[in-house]
Amino acid sequence: MTDLVTFGETMLRLTPPRGRRLEQVTEFDVAVGGAESNVAVAAAQFEHDVRWLSRLPDSPLGRRVSTELRRHGVEPAVDWTTGGRVGTYYLERGGKPRGANVVYDRDRSAFDSVAVEDLPVDRLSGAKMFHTSGITPGLSDATAAATEHLLETAVDAGVRTSFDLNYRSKIWDPDAARETIEPLLSFVDVLFAPERDAATVLGLEAEAPTQANRLANTYDVETVVVTRGTDGVVCRHDGETFEQPIYETDTLDPVGTGDAFVGGFLATRLDGADCGDALAYAAATAALKRTIEGDMALVSPKEVEAVVESGGVDISR
């Protein structure tokens, strides 16, 4: 039986060497990354049976994406097409005061025109959990329709559903995001919401515990996880509130930290852990991800457990 199915676009990430700007770059490091496939990879590290549902061009670059995910334990369930392309994004890294910059180049990708009737939706049948994020419905009318259809299909099939609000201002504005995302929340069992995104998109200007309660009550969501950066995480489940601090980490690459957290949480919950333990393992997975270059959390359950048991003390000692 499939434990987790995720749905979304995965891109090629092109990163200049540290200290180089896009205007001066002569070479790029190439990696594979996308919110939902990052979650899939993180969950697969916990030895779960994971599928990634998407659309790719039948090209060398499309096969590069598929092969990379399979190499890390995720089974691609792909609608292969001769049209479109693989989306890309450029990550220009920088320290204070400049900061990092992300440039997307994903228009007219193969995923932009995804159609539910062409996807291997039968992979949802019998799955334990379906996950997607707020990035996906923001890409096009077609991806928004597919997201709604898959969430509804999952609910009708008795599959539990998970959704990460994951707002991206470079994709759409808050009003458009709210108009599209709010109707989707009626299909969601587990909601992940960064504190700032709940305020920006859903208008919930409040502290994280209050946000979690309001999200749960307003949208009738069973489990709400509100992340608040360095201030840790709050989870509201069945009327009970759980809190989890972050684990200190040396950050080599922060991209994909939130996805690693989601993957760690879902994987641990699928193993039967309560929300308190799931938050600890999710926070440890996120901390480990920040020490790894690229978008994906290539960690082991043993490493994650060691971080939890040590309370974040250097596990290499």
Mean pLDDT: 95
Described by the principal axes of the CA atoms, the overall outline is globular
Strand content: 15-25%
Largest sheet: 9 strands, mixed
Radius of gyration: 18 Å
Helicity level, as a percent range?
25-40%
Low-pLDDT ranges: none
Distance between the termini: 38 Å
Question: Can you characterise this structure?
Answer:
- With 317 residues, the chain is an alpha/beta fold.
- The protein has one domain (4-310): 3-Layer(aba) Sandwich (UDP-N-acetylmuramoyl-L-alanine:D-glutamate ligase).
- It has nine helices and 13 strands.
- It has helices spanning 35-44, 60-71, 141-156, 174-184, 195-202, 208-219, 257-270, 275-289, 301-310; strands at residues 4-7, 11-15, 29-33, 50-57, 74-81, 88-92, 101-105, 129-133, 160-164, 190-194, 223-227, 233-237, 240-244.
- The chain has a nine-stranded mixed sheet with strand order 5-4-1-8-9-10-11-12-13, with helices on both faces. Strands 3-2-6-7 form a four-stranded mixed sheet.
- α7 packs antiparallel against α8.
- The chain is globular, with a radius of gyration of 18 Å.
- The mean pLDDT is 95.
